[in-house]
Amino acid sequence: MSKQHAPGFLALVEAAKAQIKEISIDELLQHREPYVLLDIREDHEWLDGHLPEAMHLGKGIIERDIEQTVPDKKQKIVLYCGGGYRSALSAQTLQQMGYQQVLSLAGGYRDWLQRNLPVVKP
Questions:
Q1: In the predicted structure, residue 1 carries a pLDDT above the cut 60
Q2: pLDDT, tens digit, for every residue of 14-73?
Q3: Among 25, 69, 74, 101, which is least packed by CB within 10 angstroms?
Q4: What's the number of CA atoms in the CB half-sphere (13 Å) around residue 35?
Q5: How many Å from the N-terminal Cα to the C-terminal Cα in the chain?
Q6: With 0-12 CB in 10 A as exposed, 13-18 as middle and 19+ as buried, what is 88?
Q7: PROSITE patterns in the record, alphabetically (predicted)?
Q8: Would you state the CATH architecture of domain 21-114?
Q9: What are the domain boundaries of the chain?
Q10: CB–CB of 25/115 below 8 Å?
């Protein structure tokens, strides 16, 4: 059973999606340029499993810690969360902070799992 999101939250996400770029799982799998893959889910979600090569920087601290984690604001960054909502909001925030190549993974971890793609379980 999927979680029902509040209308105000969904409106905020849709507004963010209008200002950011999303990348599909297929596009990510074919992507050959270097990028930083950031899992912005909560700690307990990260511990349940994450995408290979991902680093963890939760949504609650991303604005505080991103400049230490990714100091180059021209570096391509792909963000993902559970379903693509939180990552869209964070992508918008990082753009506001001056990051120039931020992408949100459409469908997030949930779609990755549905496609039976590899995950890392710490």
A1: no
A2: 999 999 999 999 999 999 899 999 999 999 999 999 999 999 999 999 999 999 999 999
A3: 74
A4: 24
A5: 26
A6: buried
A7: RHODANESE_3
A8: 3-Layer(aba) Sandwich (3.40)
A9: 21-114
A10: yes
Integer Cα distance of 122 and 105 in angstroms: 22
Backbone dihedral region for residue 50 (phi beyond 0: left; psi -120 to 50: alpha; all else: beta):
beta
- Supply the DSSP symbol for 96: H
Token duo for residue 101: 């190549």
At residue 120, the 3 state secondary structure works out as strand
- What's CA 109's distance to the chain center, in Å? 9
How far is 38 from 77, CA to CA, in rounded Å?
Answer: 7
CA–CA dist 24, 43 (Å, integer): 24
Q: How far apart are CA 23 and CA 9, in angstroms?
A: 21
